[in-house]
């Protein structure tokens, strides 16, 4: 072996050792400062509720303050890109879902990242989907809505549906609803669920297939919105006041929900990922967290091991890409 090759091999070994030591050191010092939990929507929506439900408990298990930061826009991709532009040290955790990381890149041509650029560390909650309508829409159930929408479209006045942004899950649900019923509908995108909800109450939009929170029960009772159904296969505890979509004649198979999880950049050192995973898992085990999520009609998923988390994310990516393909979603 020549001297130059020997030196090169020694240098390579030194670099590898340095990387291993650096990763080990990062795990030993993580977190070395407050951790930011980045929410890709404005304050007031269900995503914000989730973050502010778990951040104090997560802070306790990480040993550093966990600060909630809301950054909405472009179907959550602005916040997602901020994570990718930040150091891969685990101090910026993204609270995301298929909305921002799987669907938005398929719908918005300006987005250059893909779901594989992120690593799911743990799922945190599953949201039920409510079929919401403006309070003065002259319908009281899903079948009446379908008939109303069909007549409105025939008169050249198609109904409007809100979403949390182009390419969001709620956009796809609206398009899918239009496709399965064969009724033209108009998409009205917002920067998040909260502003969409405000316009629904202001009667500026007809319906919103929305992540459900228990606040909608009060809004329904006070006549500010109508909850026509839940997109569940059966009536679940906590939402038994509303019919499951399966009880309708026209949309009985239109059942959906969506999960939320905590993500980091894919190249975050493994020891840091393990530390975050452990803290989130311990947070999910706290009865007060489960009760608080349940108060907002959120389902708490069972904590998964990291290898199972990776499989769940890969499976979810394939599922949502298939839905997007089925409605011919094209990037705009």
UniProtKB/TrEMBL annotation:
<keyword id="KW-0732">Signal</keyword>
<comment type="similarity">
    <text>Belongs to the UPF0065 (bug) family.</text>
</comment>
<protein>
    <submittedName>
        <fullName>Tripartite tricarboxylate transporter substrate binding protein</fullName>
    </submittedName>
</protein>
<feature type="signal peptide">
    <location>
        <begin position="1"/>
        <end position="22"/>
    </location>
</feature>
<dbReference type="InterPro" id="IPR005064">
    <property type="entry name" value="BUG"/>
</dbReference>
<dbReference type="InterPro" id="IPR042100">
    <property type="entry name" value="Bug_dom1"/>
</dbReference>
<dbReference type="Pfam" id="PF03401">
    <property type="entry name" value="TctC"/>
</dbReference>
């Amino acid at each position: 072996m020549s001297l130059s090759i020997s030196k090169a091999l020694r240098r390579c070994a030194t670099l590898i050792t340095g990387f291993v030591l650096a990763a080990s050191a990062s795990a030993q010092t993580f977190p070395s400062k407050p951790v930011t939990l980045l929410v890709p929507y404005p304050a007031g929506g269900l995503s914000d509720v989730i973050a502010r439900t778990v951040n104090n408990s997560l802070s306790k298990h990480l040993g550093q303050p966990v600060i909630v930061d809301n950054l909405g826009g472009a179907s959550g991709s602005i916040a997602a890109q901020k994570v990718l532009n930040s150091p891969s040290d685990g101090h910026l955790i993204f609270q995301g879902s298929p909305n921002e990381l799987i669907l938005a890149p398929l719908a918005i041509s300006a987005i250059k990242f893909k779901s594989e650029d992120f690593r799911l560390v743990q799922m945190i909650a599953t949201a039920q989907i409510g079929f919401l309508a403006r309070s003065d829409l002259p319908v009281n159930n899903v079948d009446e809505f379908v008939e109303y929408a069909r007549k409105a479209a025939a008169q050249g006045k198609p109904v409007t549906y809100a979403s949390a942004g182009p390419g969001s899950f709620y956009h796809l649900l609206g398009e899918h609803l239009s496709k399965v019923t064969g009724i033209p509908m108009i998409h009205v995108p917002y920067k998040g669920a909260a502003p969409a909800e405000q316009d629904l109450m202001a009667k500026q939009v007809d319906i919103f297939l929305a992540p459900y929170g228990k606040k909608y029960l009060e809004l329904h009772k006070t006549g500010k919105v109508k909850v026509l159904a839940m997109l569940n296969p059966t009536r679940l505890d906590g939402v038994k006041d509303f019919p499951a979509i399966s009880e309708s004649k026209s949309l009985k198979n239109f059942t959906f929900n969506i999960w939320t999880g905590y993500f980091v950049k894919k190249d975050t050192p493994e020891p840091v990922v393990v530390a975050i995973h452990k803290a989130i898992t311990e947070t999910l085990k706290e009865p007060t967290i489960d009760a608080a999520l349940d108060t907002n009609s959120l389902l708490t998923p069972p904590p998964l091991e990291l290898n199972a988390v990776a499989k769940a994310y890969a499976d979810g990516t394939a599922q949502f890409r298939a839905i997007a393909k089925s409605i011919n979603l094209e990037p705009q």
